[in-house]
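Our preliminary data section would be incomplete without showing what the modeling component actually yields. Below, a chain of 205 amino acids is followed by its predicted structure, encoded as C-alpha cells that our downstream tools consume directly.
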Amino acid sequence: PLMPLTATQSTWGFPVAFLCWSDYCRHFFDIFGIMASPSKRREMDVMKLMMSDYEVTMNNDSTTDFNVKFYGPKGSPYDGGVWQVHVDLPDQYPYKSPSIGFCNRIFHPNVDEMSGSVCLDVINQTWSPMFDLINVFEVFLPQLLLYPNPTDPLNGEAAALLMREPEKYTNKVREYVSKYATEAIVNGDAMSEDDSDVSDLSDAE
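Predicted structure:
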C-alpha cells in the first residue's frame, strides 16, 4: 500500500507538501500520460478530469463519449451560467483533438447556437498531444468565453452585436444564461423557456 507523503518528501522532482491522493495521482498522470498508449491516455485524462472536481457523466459507460458540467468564467457576462459540454474522444486521441460542443444554448460569436459546435483554433487546428482535457476546461473554454473572436464567427448575429453594440451583446448573453444555462435546467429540475413553450403547446392540443 502507498504510504502517506510528508512535507519533506518529493515525487519525481516535484516538491510535496501534504499532497492529497488526487494531487498525487495528477502528478503521476502529468509525468507518464504522454508516454501511454492512446487508449490508456484517454482513460487517464478522463480520470484526471474527474479527480479535478468536474462533474462528468458517461454516456453508455463510455470513456470516449461523456458530458462535463462547465461554469461560466468569473469576470465575463457568462458568469453564473452552467452548461453541459459534450466531449467525444476519437480513437487517435491525444494525437487528434477531442470534439467539443455545448448541449444547452449559449449566445457567443464562436459557438453555433443550435448545434453547440465550437470554433476554437487550439482545438480545431493547433491541437497537440501535450494538451489534455484539463486544459480544455480550465484554460481553452474559459478563454473562449472571456475573449470571443467576432472576426471568425459561427454565430453571425452575436459577432455583429459584439462589434457594433457591445452593451446589447452583454445583455443578450445574460438573457440566454437566465433562459438556458441555470443549474436547475442543466440538472433537469426545470425546463428552458423554449422547452416550456413546447410543453404548453402540447398541453393546449
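Confidence is low (pLDDT under 50) at residues 1-22, 196-204. The beta strands are 10-11, 14-15, 56-58, 65-71, 82-88, 99-102. Preliminary results of this kind motivate Aim 1 of the renewal.
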